[in-house]
Write a structure and sequence with these properties.
Helices cover 30% and strands 19% of the residues. By secondary structure, the protein is of the alpha/beta class. It has a single domain, classed as Alpha-Beta Barrel (TIM Barrel). Strand 5, helix 3 and strand 6 form a beta-alpha-beta unit. 44% of the residues are buried. It binds S-adenosylmethionine.
């Protein structure tokens, strides 16, 4: 088992399989859309080996992200291989949902059980503005298809940005009164376009929660995944509401994950730009035991917590590069 210096059990890896994305979300990317060459990205064989090694170390949960994971060729193969790895109990994908409807059948057949779909607005024109692409309807089709194929629960990730979509908080909450989706409100984090983020402009989860509580009754619900989301049942509806407060609160004590970027760097804390070069080890022909001790060493130096809200500075990399 991987346990860090602060007694946190690390059983979850988030793997960015590409930095490429079909959308250009203003709050996510840095405006510089240069992509890294394929040879610099980890190959599927390297990713599968890493997951096998991690499973031996007690990792149980894997999430594939990016960039947009559905833009990388062969993702169905990767899902099929990871879902066969002994010890991996939960495999999911975070996607913008644009290609989900057309890929759903093969993804499900390969063993995909769950998806998180990012959607920040219910308005087509706003969607086109924030993502740079008029693909709102494709995302809705993706959500419908995921429902049809029984991927449950569907988690909708919504980043609330002051002045952009804070007037849609109740519209998103209402979804949980109709569908059994988990609607997760995420605080705007300091990545991407520098003009958009400023710590004084972040809408803290507490404010979002108060707004929802003004209309809907929320009852605490256990977060079975033991992750950082505070989860609630919405009274009278099948869905759940979640709040993820990486900026305004210290959810760090609940942190159970490490990240692997698409170029093969292990990033133990989302908010720290310190990364460790796994790719070099894999390509130098190190043994599984050597890679294991490298991973154990990284877990040992995982920071206890991030900085306070007012002290947080913009991270050097964008979410597209790190893997959100
Ligand atoms: N392309 C996929 C998607 O859209 O879900 C996966 C990658 S995307 C980087 C993963 C998540 O990061 C999305 O839910 C996105 O909204 C979130 N994200 C990106 N930049 C963010 C920021 N500055 N603050 C909060 N969340 C952010």
């Amino acid at each position: 088992m991987l346990i860090d210096e602060f007694n946190r059990v690390i059983n979850y890896i988030r793997i960015s399989i590409t930095d490429r994305c079909n959308l250009k979300c203003k709050y996510c990317s840095d405006g510089d859309f240069g992509y890294i060459p394929h040879g610099e990205m980890l190959s599927y064989e390297e990713i599968i080996r890493f997951v096998r090694i991690c499973a031996d170390l007690g990792i149980k949960k894997v999430r594939l992200t990016g960039g947009e994971p559905l833009t990388r060729k062969g993702i169905v193969f990767l899902i099929g291989e990871i879902s066969k790895i002994k010890g991996i109990e939960d495999l999911s994908v975070t996607t913008n949902g644009v290609f989900l409807a057309e890929r759903m059948q093969e993804l499900k057949e390969a063993g995909l059980k769950r998806v998180n779909i990012s959607l920040d607005t219910m308005k087509r024109d706003r969607f086109a503005y924030i993502t740079g692409v008029d693909a709102f309807k494709d995302v809705i089709r993706g959500i419908e298809k995921a429902m049809e194929f029984g991927l449950s629960p569907i988690k909708i990730n919504t980043v609330i940005i002051k002045g952009f979509n804070d007037d849609e908080i109740l519209d998103f909450a209402r979804m949980a009164t109709i569908y059994d989706h988990h609607i997760r409100f995420i605080e705007h984090m300091p990545f991407g376009d520098s003009d958009m983020w400023d710590s004084t402009k972040v809408i803290p989860s507490r404010e979002i929660e108060e707004k929802i509580r003004g209309v809907y009754e929320l009852e605490p619900s256990e977060n079975h995944e033991k992750g950082p989301a505070r989860m609630y049942r919405i009274k009278g509806g099948p869905g759940k509401i979640g709040f993820i407060s990486p900026v305004s609160s210290h959810i760090c004590s609940e942190c159970n994950r490490i990240r692997l970027t698409s170029i093969g760097m292990i990033r133990p804390c989302l908010f720290s730009d310190t990364e460790y070069n796994l790719k070099a080890l894999l390509r130098e022909g190190k043994t599984d035991e050597e890679v294991k001790s490298f991973i154990r060493g990284i877990v040992k130096v995982k920071p206890e917590k991030k900085k306070e809200m007012g002290q947080i500075k913009k991270c050097q990399k964008s979410m597209r590069q790190i893997g959100g």
